[in-house]
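Methods — Computational structure assignment.
A single polypeptide chain was analysed. Its primary sequence is given first, followed by the predicted tertiary structure written as structure tokens.
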Amino acid sequence: MDLFEKRVRNLGPLGMYAKQADGYFMFPKLEGEIGNKMIFRGKERLVWSLNNYLGLANHPEVRKADAEAAARFGLAAPMGARMMSGQTVYHEQLERELAAFVNKPAAYLFNFGYQGMISVIDSMVDRNDVIVYDSEAHACIIDGMRLHIGKRFVYPHNNMENLRKGLERATKLTQQTGGGILVITEGVYGMSGDLGKIKEIVELKKEFNFRLLIDDAHGFGTMGPTGAGTDEHFGVQDGVDMYFGTFAKSMAGIGGFIASTEPIIDYLKHNMRSQIFAKSLPMPMVMGALKRLELVRTQPELRTKLWTIVEALQKGLREAGFNIGNTESPVTPVLLNGTIPEATNITVEMREKYNIFCSIVTYPVVPKGIIMLRLIPTAVHTLEDVKYTIEAFKEINAKLENGDYKNVAFADISNL
């Protein structure tokens, strides 16, 4: 079969809905200043879908730093990969400051968080090594493991008994191969909002010889007394061997980093193919990240504002009888019972009648019969936003339970 014909015949689990969904349910266009309210299809909506946790996207100091860096350096500098011609003192400064903030000896920058995690996994393990990972690992972790030609064992989400069994199997195998063991978990799970059991995993180091890598994309800047992450929240920073963070969430930017020991960072910077053969992170991104990190460190009131909204939203939803799972982070899932067609009708009602824009998650991300409304509270939301949203959700849920959203097909958005 012709390759193009093959792909067009099978558009994939999301692509099959492209005609009904593009521009509304998928690839929607949010316009205007990034904040708690933005424009969608010409109308202002209350937005709960942006990982702008600390509200830095439009912070005046951030905007100023971004603009000044773009004017000073342009978007081209530095030219080339860092190993060849793209190294600067500012990249090195950002790495030192990131390492110090997350209490690690050294750090290295990535152009993109997703790409960075893939690169770390690919570089750290070979055919003799074994990976043991959580079943709800992010797609970037899964893609990184696809490059691993050795064994990998999965354990059910946060199930420490099964993790122990996986470590026992991995230990027996590496005793034969001479390899090592890498355990991978997330700090904050981006869909459910619950935390990886990092403290319990670190405790297992007393019984097993392994290294621990945590993906803390949603925890960096939001969790812990200083915002240094989920391992700081649990008080086990010394037990985490490799700490991965991204700039796309709390830092409201582009890029990411890995922090570890100096020898490991030195190894990675000379062996991660995606960084060796890719152009260096542009200067405006680096200078902007320096300013963002400064604000994360020096303005704890941003994190206080965030958690004020988080606690009000989650408390209010629970008191209203909604199931928000086991979240212990800002990520706030609202779990309802319903079908995919019902989810599309709910989405339209929320956006067109209540002017609320939030992410709707359905099967296969969540089990069949479940609809997840995923809310991301931020420091720029207000308590009025919270109150309005909870009241709207009450009305929507009553209609759902009454069968008002039942339909055999997607909601018709052709006239919206």
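Note: The first helix runs from residue 3 to 9.
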